[in-house]
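Before the break, one more example. Copy the sequence into your notebook; we will annotate it together after we see the structure.
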Amino acid sequence: MDEASILNAYRRYARNYNRFFGKIFEQGRRQVVRYMNCQPGDRTLDVGIGTGLSLNFYPKDTLVVGIDISPEMLAMAREAIHRSDSRNVCLSLMDAQKLCFPDDTFDKVAAMYVASVVPDPQSMIAEIKRVCKPDGDIFILNHFSNGHLLPKMIEKIFAPFENVIGFRPHFPLDHFIDNAALKVVSLSQVNLFGYWTLIHAKNEEPDSNRIAS
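Here is what the structure looks like once it is written out:
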């Protein structure tokens, strides 16, 4: 996976993304925001906001900052915000692996259907941890390989084409959690056949090295 392939893939998807992936993934988006339990005044970061399909589920008294690397997807999100006249949402074109926010900016961070899209998921999680407040909540929603026969066969078929489709079909959960060093609170299966997993993690207190810096 590389950035150019991702940008090309989502340039193709943008105009029809909602039509094909809106209802299919809606349960997961709704469940993430419900689990986030956003409170008045919370500052929330939505990483990989895409076309803005999650925005309708956030409370209007919560500030939501949405970022995405695809200009075309973000343009669709801006159109959705304009139609709904949402005043609690701010969108920015940004790489999830290089977030342009100060440390400890957000109370809660969500990354929906993006972990298997970025070239380096570990860098993305490191950035999410950096901008999330200590003991803040992190929510990762993604498909993860579960070893079942049919999904395994489908993943094997599509694996050689990941640069074309714009995500990694083979994406093991345990490997992701270990590499990301996530302090997992809960795991929930969502969407069709429970193939997608919602990870709720707590952002650990900064270590001594970070305090010293």
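Confidence is low (pLDDT under 50) at residues 208-213. The chain has eight helices and seven strands. Try to locate both features in your own notes.
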